[in-house]
Amino acid sequence: MKMKKLIVALIALALTPSVSFAAPKAEVLHWWTGGGEAKALKVLQDEFAAQNGVWLDMPVSGGGGDAAMQTLKARIVANDAPAAAQIKGPTIQEYDEEGVVAPYNIDAVAKKEGWDNLLSKQVASHMKCDDGKAYCAAPVNIHRIDWIWANKKVLDSNGIKMPSTWAEFNAAADKLQANGIIPLAHGSQPWQDATVFEAVALGVGGNDFYRKAFVDLDAATLGGSTMTKVFDQMRKLKGYTDAGSPGRDWNVATGMVMEGKAAFQIMGDWAKGEFAANNMAPGKDYICAPTPSNNGYLYNVDSFIFYKVKGKDKVEGQKLLASLMMGKNFQKVFNIYKGSIPARLDVSMDEFDMCAKKSNADLKTAGSKGGLLPSFAHGMALRLAQKGAIQDVVTEHFNSNMSSSDAAKKLAAAVKASL
Length: 419
Ligand code: GAL
Hints:
alpha/beta, D-Maltodextrin-Binding Protein, domain 2, five-stranded mixed sheet, binds beta-D-galactopyranose, SBP
């Protein structure tokens, strides 16, 4: 009986055409290990598998991706690049300059699918290599950084409205603290300190100030008196955090707001992915509002870069991934879980929640009023060395007794040294 089966199998094999079919394959390096993040990523993994793709998962946990960036660097130095990696902003072009990126693997897909017509010029330009000639990365979303998240019950029972100025925020936080509630859920890790800092800078300094400081790296703005005021507000915020804050992960901080242990969190809208994953609804269980600013909007586009790889199966894997990432339905489903809004311009917002709809509307307003600005804390504005220099000073100030004016001076000096 066994022998008969073997013979049948051998005959079947002999009759199979000799063209070898290798399934598309991709090793994907990312840092999406939080609840909402993992749920969103699974949409892509499932779509890839449904097209016979073999996904080799390379997660490097650590919010904001600082740890992932280090692992990635080590892999590139060892000449062992993954097929795709989650990277953003100018870091994409930085890697291209090193000659390790493979723009022409996915550019054909982008041309065929007309990505130039599906994306805003701003988003598209972040995705291109070879002096803007070819797509080398695919965008999956637009996250907004400058958000405050609040537990609705906590605000209601303390008679507090969502603040719309930083003075109102401080007054609300003072009241909550007097009532024994932690005003601000925060995890003091360098990237989280920088996330809060850039939202404060946008509000306290304004759009032009933000651009001059964190896009143009203007020394006088970095070290000046407005920057001192930004650090003053950071010092205030530090006083609203709890003793357990240092080192806490961002999603644990979101959990404190969900449970009502803390009232507010200042964080990008991946925090909404956590609320959503726990079946909490905006307007009912929690409130979202932009941090106070003058029609500002700090954007953060998650994207995947495609490196030079050997083997047809890997190149095919890259092409399939790129095409799926830009899929219309994928960008809807993924972003509903992730908390962001689609990077594609033609996805209907009908099924999105009120916070996403607000993000989408505010993005347009900010665009027309000069307030649409790249997040430096999330790698959209600056190269890694400058981002790191600013982040280090911000977190040092937040976790010490450094004066605000010393911090501003140190900021300007650190940026200068990093250039
Ligand atoms: C951001 C990233 C988001 C989210 C967040 C926390 O940099 O753009 O997608 O993952 O970090 O990990």
